Amino acid sequence: MAVGVLGQYNRNLRLIGESFAEVHIMARGDRIELEGEEKEVRQLERLLGKLVDVVKGNHHPTSDEVRYLISQVKGGEDLAGLLTDVVQVTHWGEAIRPKTAGQRQYVQAIRDNDAVFAIGPAGTGKTYLAVAMALGYLKRGQVKRIVLTRPAVEAGEQLGFLPGDIFQKVNPYLRPLYDAIYDMIPALELDKHIQNGRVEIAPLAFMRGRTLNHAFVILDEAQNTTHTQMKMFLTRLGFGSKAVVTGDITQVDLEGRPSGLAEVGQILSGIPGIAIVHLDRRDVVRHPLVKAIIEAYERTESARGAAGEGQG
Q1: Stretch (H or E) spanning 70
Q2: Nearest to 54 by CA among 113, 103, 7, 115
Q3: Cα(123)–Cα(295) distance, rounded to whole angstroms?
Q4: 36 pLDDT band (50/70/90 cuts)?
Q5: How many C-beta neighbours within 10 Å does residue 279 have?
Q6: Alpha carbon of 165 to those of 121, 168, 170: distances in Å?
Q7: Which SS3 state, helix, strand or coil, does residue 95 take?
Q8: Which residues, at least 6 apart from 291, have a Cβ–Cβ distance to it below 8 Å?
Q9: 3-state secondary structure of 29
Q10: For residue 10, how many C-alpha atoms fall within 13 Å in the half-sphere facing its CB?
Q11: Separation CA 285–CA 61 (nearest Å)
Q12: 3-state class (DSSP) for residue 132
C-alpha cells in the first residue's frame, strides 16, 4: 500500500513535498504524519486519502496522475471518481479513467443525458473520453452502432484541391478519430466493425437526410460547424441514441461565418436531456507543456482584448 501511495523510491512523495512546501511530511512504513499550515495539511490529507482509494482499486498512479490530483486538490475540486472510475480499457490493458473534476463531470453527463456538448481546449480529453464511452455502450449492447463524424473544414483548405475520390479527400480530416479508436480496439477489429456497420466514420456532410437510431453519435471539431450544420446534425438523433458534440470555440476555422457550437448555450440551455460541459486548462491531461502553452496564449489574447477596448 505504501509503495503505491508514495511511489517507487518515494517518487510520489517527492512530488507532493514540492507542491506542499509549507507542510513537513514524515513517512514511517504505512504511517504518514503531517505538520504545518492548517489549510495545506487538510488539502494534503484529502490528497493522500484519495491516493489510498486509488491504490485500493489496484491502480498505482503515475507521476502525471499525481500531478493532476495535486492540481485538483489545490483548486478545491471534488475528487469523487477521479482515477477510480474506469470508463474503458485499451487493447493493451490500460484503464481509461477521468483524471480531473471536469472530465468526471463530462463522463457523468454522458451517462445521464442523451445529448452532451463538451467545450474546451486541446488536451482535455473531449474526443478520447467520448470514444471510450461509445465503445463501452457498444460492447454492453446499449447501442447498435457508433457513428463518428467531423466537418471537413480546417485551416482554409478546400476538398476540391485534394487528390483522390471523396473518401481519400476526407480521410485526413477523420484521422484523429481513427487515432482515438485505435487506442481502444485493434485495427483488425475496427476494420471488422466498419465492414459490418457497427462503426461508421464519415464527414458531417454524409449525415444529411439520415435518422440515427440506437446509435452513439460523436461530432468532433464542432466549432467548425455553421448554425445550419449544427441544427442538421442534432436533428439526426433517433430513438435509443446518444449524441456527444465536442469542440474548442477558440479554434474556429470558418471564414466570415459564426460557429454553430458557440451559440448552443444560448439556444439549448435548460432543455432536459441536454448537458453542456465546459472544460478548461485545469482539465488538460497531455504533456505539461500543453497546459503552459494554453495559459500563455490566454494571457496574450486577454492582453490584446484589453488593449483593443482601451483604444476603443
Answers
A1: helix 63-74
A2: 7
A3: 13
A4: very high
A5: 24
A6: 32, 5, 9
A7: strand
A8: 123, 281, 284
A9: coil
A10: 11
A11: 14
A12: helix
